[in-house]
Design goal:
Layout lengths: L8 H15 L6 H8 L3 H4 L6 H13 L12 H17 L5 H7 L4 H16 L4 H24 L5 H7 L7 H10 L4 H15 L8
Helix pairs in contact: 1-2, 1-4, 4-7, 5-7, 5-8, 7-8, 8-11, 9-10
């Protein structure tokens, strides 16, 4: 199999992301990425050390599409919402990559740039050092969890229908919740959940 004379990081990341989009995380390997690039598996080792490095490249590739610039003015809550929605939009096109963000967020420059923008908004809003730390992690946890629920376990679908069909005398709240869930869109669930979280976050300096 012919081997390209040289490969850029962008080419490697694009090939790895294509593999993940097509076959999920279970399909990501040195062999499959090498095949996508039209080269031997051993040839790929000239550029990346292992699958772990491929995963980081994939996370970088998706986060590079996220605008990490300062959000438009307005209340800090609206600015945070803007930044979070940017990540959601980017990962909506590559849902299988969401699970990798928890492992590689500290090594992805794109993720770090986004976190830096979010920390700046929180700092300007009056969040102290510890508060910024907790708020950042809470928001990132919500974002990753909500994205996985949206793409791996959406409200509408067979799972929700099964819950709605449980014995109501044994699970009255679960069945009622499941019936209602069938009428809530993914956008509504995500945005309303984020706003609930933001209502619970406030800087000490801004409290009465």
């Amino acid at each position: 199999m012919p081997r390209p004379r040289s490969l850029s990081t962008d080419q490697l990341a694009a090939a790895a992301l294509t593999v993940v989009d097509r076959g999920g995380l279970s399909g990501l390997s040195m062999r499959t990425v090498a095949g996508e690039l039209g080269m031997s598996t051993m040839g790929l080792y000239r550029y990346v050390a292992d699958r772990d490095e491929l995963e980081r490249l994939v996370v970088d590739r998706v986060f590079d599409a996220v605008d990490a610039g300062p959000p438009a003015g307005g209340p800090w809550e609206r600015q945070v919402e803007d930044l979070v929605e940017r990540v959601r939009k980017a990962f909506a096109e590559h849902p299988a990559v969401v699970a990798l963000t928890l492992v590689h967020r500290h090594r992805s420059r794109g993720a770090l740039r986004w976190a830096e923008a979010l920390l700046a908004v929180l700092g300007d809003a009056g969040f102290a050092d510890r508060e910024r730390l907790v708020a950042l992690r809470a928001l990132f946890s919500y974002l990753v969890g909500a994205l996985q629920l949206e793409h791996l376990g959406p409200l509408a679908g067979a799972g929700t229908q099964r819950l709605a069909g449980l014995p109501p005398d044994e699970f009255p709240h679960t069945t009622a919740n499941a019936r209602y869930a069938q009428h809530v869109t993914a956008d509504e669930e995500f945005t309303e959940g984020l706003r609930m979280l933001l209502r619970g976050l406030s800087p000490t300096a801004g409290r009465p």
